[in-house]
Amino acid sequence: MGDKLVYTRLHIYDTSDWIGRRQYEGGDDDTYSIGISDGVAQFKSAMDNLLVSGKIFQNCVFTTHGNEGAIFFNHQQITAYELYKNFNAPHYEKLFPFKDVKVYFDGCNVASGDDGWKFLEAAGRTFLRYGGGHAMGWTSAGLGLPSVIPWVGGHTEHLWGHVRGVYVFPDDSDGSLYLRRWGEGAD
Predict the structure, then answer these.
(1) Are the CB atoms for 164 and 137 separated by under 8 Å?
(2) In this structure, are residues 129 and 170 in contact, taking their beta carbons and an 8 Å threshold?
(3) pLDDT digits (tens, 9 = 90+) for 41-59
(4) Which of 50, 52, 85, 148 is 20 to 30 Å from 186 by CA-CA measure?
(5) H helices then E strands: how many in the chain?
(6) How many CA atoms lie within 13 A of 137 on its CB side?
């Protein structure tokens, strides 16, 4: 991680257990990585530090454990409610000012059920208010593969289920946001 301000990808990953630590053990010059081991307060602090530093990103990947409509840092969950309550007001959308940003949650079942839709919509409203884009995740359990496994290591492999998401359209004329669900079970 250098001192540049514009990156292709922000990678946020839970390092509170061996799966998270082994799943991502490196990166490239165009990925800014943040390992979170202490929980939600550390995640919020890291996001605040990014805002202060002026760094901006074209895409974001969250590598965490998940459940229907939630991600976890050190067994502390973030749901749609927590996104609105604790992460909406600081204006984290400033970290993602580009058009058509993709925010991907690779944790198990994050996008599953009604709570999954609520979580994706909250993530879209929290991170994609400037340029719009996709907040997406899986409706199934996955298998975290250590980065030492050639070709497929370093991410979560979902062997069944579906990717689904929410596309956010900002309206520049009045500041409104329009959301459209896509994928399995979309309206």
Answers:
(1) yes
(2) yes
(3) 999 999 999 999 999 999 9
(4) 85
(5) 4, 12
(6) 35
